[in-house]
Design goal:
Blueprint: E1 5-10, H1 12-28, E2 33-37, E3 55-59, E4 78-81, H2 84-89, H3 95-106, E5 110-115, H4 120-125, E6 128-132
Parallel strand pairs: 1-5, 1-6, 2-3, 2-4, 4-5
Length: 140
């Protein structure tokens, strides 16, 4: 089975919602999913039903939690790492270190990374790279 890396960047809400859409589809197909939250912005995620215990939610609360990310791949078919910019701004992780983690995770899991910033190095390793921008006053 081929696993892909998705890199969604731009508007924080839109990138995360896109990742959550993929999570919901995966759960609907009986896949095991891990959501890694890096801030308190999306607390509502914890209310997603954990059907058949196929969903785990992990909150990164301190720098030491980063080292656990690469060890979590035994359980998951899909991993969503939300808003990596929080970790980078706190200097808890570098893009290069994140790439090492993602490439290890990709061996066993599909990986989605969301960010409000574009990171060329992440785009280079991603199988899918999408930019999201919120648009106002759209009329249909």
């Amino acid at each position: 089975m081929v696993n892909f890396v998705h890199f969604y960047f731009g508007d924080a809400d839109e990138t995360f919602f896109t990742g959550i859409g993929t999570v919901i589809r995966a759960l609907g197909h009986g896949k095991k999913v891990n959501i890694i939250l890096t801030d308190e912005k999306f607390k509502w995620v914890e209310k997603i039903p954990k059907e058949k215990n196929n969903l785990r939610i992990f909150k990164v609360k301190c720098k030491n939690d980063i080292h656990l990310l690469g060890k979590r791949s035994k359980f998951e078919d899909l991993i969503l790492i939300s808003n990596i910019d929080v970790l980078i701004q706190k200097k808890w992780i570098t893009v290069e270190y994140l790439i090492d983690i993602v490439l290890k995770l990709k061996e066993k899991s599909e990986v989605i990374i969301t960010s409000f910033s574009f990171h060329k190095a992440l785009a280079d390793i991603a199988d899918y790279c999408s930019h999201f921008q919120k648009r106002n006053n759209i009329q249909i």
